[in-house]
Write a structure and sequence with these properties.
two-stranded parallel ribbon; 2 domains; alpha/beta; Nitrile Hydratase, Chain A
Length: about 210
Amino acid sequence: MTGHDHSRTFQADHPEPTSDAARIGLALRELLIEAGHYTVDEEQVVIAAMQGASPENGAKIVARAWIDPAYRERLLRNGGKALEEAGFDIAPYEFTVMENTGDIHNVIVCTLCSCYPRSLLGMSPAWYKSKSYRSRVVREPRKVLAEFGVKLNEDVDVRVHDSTAELRYMVLPQRPAGTDGWSEEKLASLVTRDSLIGTQRDLRVRCRS
């Protein structure tokens, strides 16, 4: 075919942009590459890492913290460094882990848009990005949590943490009773995506006959 400019670099599986926003995003990407801010190879490394991201990564971090008190302390003190120690990288963002306790429940939101630790946990759920969740969980967190099935006593302090362009959060849920002696792998199987956000509190231990 003639009359088309094929000099631009596209991702191997990048579809032809069909909207103005997609065309602007693609043009910006090309300008950044041409200006030397990053290379196509570097971009592919980041994409590959994000494609392997899922809540299972967060579950592994939680399970390790449950088993290793020293790691738990490091995780709560400096989440980014603790992630690197476990083989994960969330740079360039700051990463903070908030721990649920008997009298504290944490929940994560991004009120301005939908900032989320995608490079660690994968894509955020659709409801996390909804205007309803982003506005209501700040104003009426107990009511919103109740709609997720999280019924909290009045003596439990609910703390809402607002993610930003520079800062990402994750919740460290409480370890369920009856899991003494469990392996990290088995403990990790209990951790859900919603518990890492804070819209689930109690993790259920399935009894096997």
